[in-house]
Every structure is written in C-alpha cells, then in structure tokens.
Amino acid sequence: MTTLGRILYVEDNLENRILIKRVLEAEGYTVLEAANGREGLALAESQRPDLILMDINLPDVDGYECTRRLRSADGLSQIPILALTANVLEGDRQRALAAGCDGYIPKPIDVDELPDVIAAYLKKRPPLPDEALQKDGQAAEAAPNPKLSTEAEKQPAPDVRPPVGGEGGSVTPPRTLL
Ligand code: MN
C-alpha cells in the first residue's frame, strides 16, 4: 500500500480527529492519532512520521512543550510541525513558532485548504542526511562520513543466495523492520 506520507495528529478533541483523519486519508495520507501530548511524543518517537499536526491546547503536555521536546530529540528535530490553535492572537502564533513549529493552522480547520498546506510543508522538508549524500555523490566519495562507513561495515552483507532446497522452498527473508 502506498501512501503520500504519514501524518501524526495530536488532538484531544475526538470529533476533530475523526474529521481530519477522514479528510487526509481520502487524500492518500496515513494518519496516526494521539489524544494527548504524552501519546503524541511516544508515537512521534516510535513511528517517525513525515509531518505532525499539533493541537496547542492539550490536557497534559501542551503543544508548545511537545514541540520543544520534539525539537530537542535525536532524529525528530527535522519533522515539520504545524500548530493548530483556536486562538488567532498574533502572540500565540509567535509563541508556536518560537517553540519550534514550522507554521500554524487556525481553528476551525479549513478542510479544503488543509491538504495543500500539508503538501507544501512536506515539500519544504529539508533532505535527510542520506538523501543529501546521494545528491552530492562526489563530495561524499572524496570525504566519506566516518560514522556512516563504520555503520556500513557493521552491517552484514545481505544474503541474496536462493534458498537451499529447490523450488517452493518455504524460506522467507528475515524482517529487519517492524
Ligand atoms: Mn485541544
């Protein structure tokens, strides 16, 4: 199954979650839901979504604090985070940006506009280190990243031999990812 991307939606309001999930799934996204800040932080860490929609008013850890924690977490700091706030006061927008959000979406959410906004932020995402390396192959060869080389050496060579036992063997390749 293909997906345009995996979006984590951190939102305590069930009706909003149902609505936004429906809209985004119809567009082709996979939607992960969290009903509070702690769930959101745990899912962000375990699932590494492509983008996070972050409600600001949450019952436990609020969206500002969640964003600050995500921004200081290893491997999560580059994920685009869009704040959702019912409050249109300029001060709250600035606070969301100061906490590390990439942008904000006013509530009530305009469901016609939301997919375009999300697509725009997914495109703006900075390339991951691996992708940057591929785009800059010459530089990567001239100055190999010692950390990446070490990791590559540690990986066992993939076993591409056909399964022993002839056709119809029941050997299945090992799954290395959950
Ligand atoms: Mn809320």
Radius of gyration: 20 Å
Strand content range: 5-15%
Number of helices: 8
Q: How would you characterize the largest beta sheet?
A: 5 strands, parallel
Q: Topology of this structure?
A:
Layout: E1 6-10, H1 14-27, E2 30-34, H2 37-47, E3 51-55, H3 63-71, E4 81-85, H4 90-99, E5 103-106, H5 114-124, H6 129-135, H7 137-142, H8 146-154
Helix pairs in contact: 2-3
Bound molecules: manganese (II) ion.
Manganese (II) ion is lined by residues 12-13, 55, 57-58.
List keywords for this structure.
single chain; 178 residues; alpha/beta; binds manganese (II) ion; 8 helices; 5 strands
Kindly describe this structure.
With 178 residues, the chain is of the alpha/beta class. The chain has helices at 14-27, 37-47, 63-71, 90-99, 114-124, 129-135, 137-142, 146-154; strands at 6-10, 30-34, 51-55, 81-85, 103-106. It has a 5-stranded parallel beta sheet with strand order 2-1-3-4-5, sandwiched between helices. Strand 3, helix 3 (63-71) and strand 4 (81-85) form a beta-alpha-beta unit. The model is unreliable at 135-154 and 168-178 (pLDDT under 50). The chain binds manganese (II) ion (MN). The site of manganese (II) ion has 5 residues, from loops.
Task: Characterize this entry briefly.
With 178 residues, the chain is an alpha/beta fold. The protein contains eight helices and five strands, in the order E-H-E-H-E-H-E-H-E-H-H-H-H. The protein is 43% helix and 13% strand.
